[in-house]
Design a protein that fits this description.
GO cellular component, one term: cytosol
Shape: globular
InterPro entries: Cys_rich_dom
GO molecular function, one term: oxidoreductase activity
Number of helices: 13
Radius of gyration: 18 Å
Strand order of the largest sheet: 2-1-3-4
Organism: Gimesia chilikensis
Protein name: Lactate utilization protein A
């Protein structure tokens, strides 16, 4: 029997990048997952938490748990939103069995594909030099890839999936796990610093020869794509689910 997954689509993806949600759905269904999209879902509360409005997060957290608790797993194409649910909801739940169960079965999209579904490679062809941006939440909270400040054997399932696609060449960055500068409301409160950090990231991909810039978080890509478009850089931006979908 196919696992039944609740598809959690972040607000900004729903409003600005619906093609990412559609690509995520296509890939999950391609691998035999029964996917349901609960239309009553709302924001996970991360923007409020980032700005210190913690009282406003509580109702959203409780609503999230109520909506998604019945599924075998919850999958989301955003490491930052998954991190919010699994790492920052604890203060709103005291010994809550539903939340503890949900926390253990909420996954970032590529993490679910590799660790739960056991996907090791993708068929198809994508003949491009691909630059992989490692977003901070996915890297340092969800531990989806190794970070340069930690000693140990390098790992990264998303990179391995990309490398399995015929024609993909992963570009080599000078600073492979540096923040893009978006940081949600940080980009509003510290606009100049945010833009400078983003420009540094774009420049690193440019010197590496990146043709397609991808990531596990569309929020980071939204920030970087704004810089790329304003500076008229010849770099295409795609969420990793879009690359996978193009390979089908």
């Amino acid at each position: 029997m196919a696992p039944k997954v609740g598809l959690f689509i972040p607000c900004y993806v729903d409003q600005l990048f619906p093609q990412v949600g559609i690509a995520t759905l296509k890939i999950l269904e391609h691998f035999g997952v029964e996917v349901d999209y609960p239309e009553s879902q709302t924001c996970c509360g991360q923007p409020m938490a980032n700005t210190g409005c913690t009282n406003e997060v509580g109702p959203l957290a409780k609503r999230f748990v109520e909506i998604f608790k019945a599924y075998d797993a919850v999958v989301c194409p955003s490491g930052s939103c998954v991190s919010m649910v699994t790492h920052h909801y604890d203060e709103y739940f005291q010994n809550d069995v539903d939340y503890e169960n949900l926390k253990g079965k909420t996954y970032e999209f590529t993490d679910y594909l590799t660790t739960v579904m056991g996907v090791k490679q993708f068929a198809g062809r994508f003949p491009h030099k691909v630059g992989l941006h490692q977003s901070c939440h996915g890297l340092r909270e969800l531990r989806l890839a190794s970070s340069s400040e930690v000693v140990g054997e390098p790992f990264g399932n998303a990179r391995a999936l990309l490398e399995s696609i015929e024609g993909v060449e992963i570009t080599q960055l000078q600073r492979p796990d540096e923040c893009c500068g978006f940081g949600g409301t940080f980009s509003v409160a510290e606009e100049a610093v945010s833009c400078m950090m983003g420009e540094d990231r774009v420049h690193d991909h440019e010197q590496a020869g990146t043709e397609v810039l991808t990531a596990l978080d569309m929020s980071c890509l939204m920030h970087l794509n704004g810089i790329i478009r304003r500076q008229k850089k010849p770099i295409r931006v795609m969420h990793i689910s879009e690359i996978f979908a193009e390979c089908l």
